[in-house]
């Protein structure tokens, strides 16, 4: 479970964060385009890693593992990206540090995409965010864990600020599943397009 708000970005950041309700009809296209803009920062030969954080022991916090399980089915060849965090083998507070150490030992300067659930304001519940910089897993429930990702995607699954553990346990599974479907399908499509050689154009204010 990540912090409520996206990471504060430096004034010189070229790509602003995206935040969009999951009910928007063009949300897939918006996420795909924003991801492709972030992918322009990938160096030649730099491997891509997706880390989906969370646990299936909590309804609200199972967003990451659900996304990871969907991505594993879509990327069965394992050629497009490396994946950590599924329902079968989740990445959570207890093993996150070990997982990151394993990645650091096995890969040289990979481009990492972090995925997690987060809590937010009532008006933001059901929104998906695409943000440059690392996510802060555990911050939403006052845990200190290592930051994850060159970029990250989060789904706002419920209201934050009070009794976070109870709120996570009483989050609607239907919303979490819908957010996971949008994130996994959009991310996989964006990665496919990137490997096919598609390069987006960026205009100020996008």
UniProtKB/TrEMBL annotation:
UniProt-listed InterPro entries: Pept_HybD-like_dom_sf (IPR023430), YyaC (IPR009665)
Highest classification ranks of the organism: Bacteria, Bacillati, Bacillota, Bacilli, Bacillales
Protein name (record): Spore protease YyaC
SUPFAM superfamilies linked: HybD-like (SSF53163)
Top-rank taxon, per record: Bacteria
Cross-referenced Pfam families: DUF1256
């Amino acid at each position: 479970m990540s912090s409520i708000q996206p990471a504060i970005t430096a004034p010189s950041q070229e790509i602003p964060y995206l935040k969009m309700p999951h009910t928007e009809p063009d949300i897939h296209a918006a996420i795909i385009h924003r991801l492709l803009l972030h992918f322009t920062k990938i160096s030649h030969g730099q491997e891509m890693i997706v880390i989906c954080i969370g646990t299936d022991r909590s309804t609200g916090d199972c967003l990451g593992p659900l996304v990871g399980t969907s991505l594993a089915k879509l990327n069965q060849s394992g050629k497009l990206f490396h994946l950590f965090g599924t329902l079968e083998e989740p990445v959570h507070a207890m093993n996150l540090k070990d997982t990151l150490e394993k990645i650091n030992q096995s890969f040289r300067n990979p481009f990492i995409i972090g995925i997690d659930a987060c809590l937010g304001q009532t008006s933001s519940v059901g929104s998906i965010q695409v943000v440059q910089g690392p996510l802060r897993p555990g911050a939403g429930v006052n845990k200190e864990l290592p930051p994850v990702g060159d970029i990250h995607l989060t789904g706002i699954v419920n209201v934050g600020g009070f009794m976070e553990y109870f709120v996570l346990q009483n989050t609607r599974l239907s919303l979490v599943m819908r957010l996971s479907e949008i994130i996994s399908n959009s991310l996989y499509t964006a990665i496919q397009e990137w490997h096919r050689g598609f390069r987006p154009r960026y205009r100020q204010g996008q």
